[in-house]
Amino acid sequence: MRRVLVFLLVLNFAFAYDVPVDCTQIFEARKDEILKELEVIDEQRQALEAFRASAQAAYEEGLKKLAQKEADINATMKTLEQKRKEIDDQVAKNDKILTQLRTMTTDKVNESYSKMKDQAAADVLSQMSRAQAASIMYALEPKKISTVMAKMDPKTASEITTLLTKGPPFNDDNESSIDTPAGSLNIR
C-alpha cells in the first residue's frame, strides 16, 4: 500500500509541473467575461430605468385624466343639481297655480250651484258621477245641501251622502279610473 501511495504522489507532481499555469491569461479571460456581464447588467439597468420612467409618465397621465374626469363629473353633478332645483321650483310654482285654478273653478262652480234653484241643481247633480256631485255639494252650505238632496232621487241622495260622510277626496267605487298620459293634467 505504501508503494501505491508513493507512486500516486510521484505521478501527481509529474503532471502538476507539466502544465504551466498562466494566471494572467485566466485573469484576462475572466476580465472579458466580467466586462460582458457588466454590459448586460448595465443594459438591463437602463431598460429598467426607462421602464420606470415610462410607467411613472403613464401613471401621471392617468392621474391627470382621472382628475379631469372627476372635474367633469363634479361639473355635471353641479349642473344636474341646479337643473333639479329649477325643476323643483317650477313644479312648486305649477302646483301653486294648479291649486289656484282648482280653487277658482271650485269657487265658481259652488257659487253657481248655490244660486241655482234647488230642483235644477238636484237634476244636474243627479246626472253627474257621484264623486263629482259629492265634491260640489261638499263646498255648499249645509242648508243648501239639505234642500238640494230633498229634491233628488232617494237612491242618488243616499250614494252622495255616503261619499260625503267619507270626506274628500271623493272617488266613485264603481267609476273606472282612466290612466292619463304623462304630462297631461287630469283636473276633476
Automatic annotation (TrEMBL):
Annotated Magnesium transporter MgtE intracellular domain residues: 70-165
Coiled coil: 41-100
First and last residue of the signal peptide: 1-16
Key words of the record: Coiled coil, Signal
Top-level lineage group: Bacteria
Pfam families to which the protein is assigned, alphabetical: MgtE_N
Disordered as annotated region, ranges: 164-188
Record-given protein name: Motility protein chaperone MotE
